[in-house]
């Protein structure tokens, strides 16, 4: 991916994120398995709940649009249980973008991320 946004509501394959140079992906990861499939040399990932509100809102809006256009039962369920779903979502960005995201976080969340 060189730009744009993607919402992934299913499992990802091996080497996810290899070659990602821009944009962002939102991944629903209810089983906490994402880290086993990523290319950590190319990307960083963060709990969506730790990201600035604009990204949380964008992810929810993408999910709502997907549900509206496709009738996806999974998307509708995630929207209806948004608080739980938010805790299972990740935001994935290229390493070059990660420092910009951290700079925009609130001071408390920024310190928390630095300790991790």
Task: Summarize the structure in words.
It is a single chain. With 116 residues, the chain is an alpha+beta fold. The protein has helices spanning 53-70, 73-80, 82-86, 95-104, 107-115, and strands at residues 5-8, 24-28, 43-47, 89-94. The radius of gyration is 14 Å and the shape is globular. The two termini are 27 Å apart.
Give the strand line-up of the largest sheet: 1-2-4-3
* String of helices and strands: EEEHHHEHH
Number of strands: 4
This entry's quaternary arrangement is single chain
Average pLDDT number:
86
Q: Which runs of at least 5 residues are low in confidence (pLDDT < 50)?
A: 106-112
Helix coverage percent: 40-55%
Radius of gyration: 14 Å
> What is the count of DSSP helices, taking H or I runs of 4+ residues?
5
Largest sheet: 4 strands, mixed
Strand content: 15-25%
Distance between the termini: 27 Å
**Coarse morphology:** globular
Classify the secondary structure makeup into a structural class: alpha+beta
Summarize the structure.
It contains five helices and four strands. It has about 120 residues and is α+β, with helices and mostly antiparallel strands.
Give the topology, please:
Layout: E1 5-8, E2 24-28, E3 43-47, H1 53-70, H2 73-80, H3 82-86, E4 89-94, H4 95-104, H5 107-115
Helix pairs in contact: 1-2
Keywords:
alpha+beta, 43% helix, 4 strands, single chain, 116 residues
